[in-house]
Amino acid sequence: METSNRSATYLPPGEGESVWLLGDLYTFKAVSEDTGGAFALWETLSPPGGGPPPHLHHREDETFYVLEGELEFLVGGNTVGAGAGSFIHVPKGTMHTFKNVGAAPARFLVTVVPGGFERFFFEAGEPATDRSSPPVQDGPPDVERLVATAAKYGCEIPPPPGE
Which N-terminal stretch is annotated as signal sequence (predicted)? Predict the structure, then answer.
């Protein structure tokens, strides 16, 4: 029987390092270092209207499991509504995004395989010293910085159509 020198991980509810990015709160439950690089898992809390720009991962498959709220996913040109209990798998290389289309915050789990992409959030986001509200931004997000940081982690964010 094969053994591992990694230890088991346990986080109680509400625990895990958190960051704010584009108004969404990401709380990391398992990072690559915890799983020997196999995967990373985080919980996302997205306010009404929240969600990232369309993007694709060149290295990771990504899955979403909706716990609360109403999301709309665009995956490879198809739009799908996703309420609590919905599962979405996005293979690497597939353009995708999500948007909270409900009137309340949406809460969902995200897994990337293999792990490592979570480092993007730590670099691009702001540490969540207050999980109840995002930090106040001075002006619009720095899109060039976001695109460059994403590219560093194998994620492509194309310019919006017409630009």
Answer: none
Report how far apart, in Å, the C-alpha atoms of 141 and of each of 73, 87, 118, 122, 126 are.
Answer: 22, 29, 19, 16, 12
Residues 26-53 pLDDT 10s = 999 999 999 999 999 999 999 999 999 9
Looking at the domain assignment, is residue 159 inside a domain?
no
Domain of residue 101 covers 16-52+73-125
Is residue 160 domain-resident? no
Does 158 map to a domain? no
The tally of domains found in the chain comes to 1
Token look-up 């799983």 returns 35
Question: What are the strands of the beta sheet with 126-127, ordered from one edge?
Answer: 87-90, 61-68, 106-113, 40-46, 24-30, 17-21, 126-127
Q: Considering the entire predicted model, what is its pTM?
A: 0.91
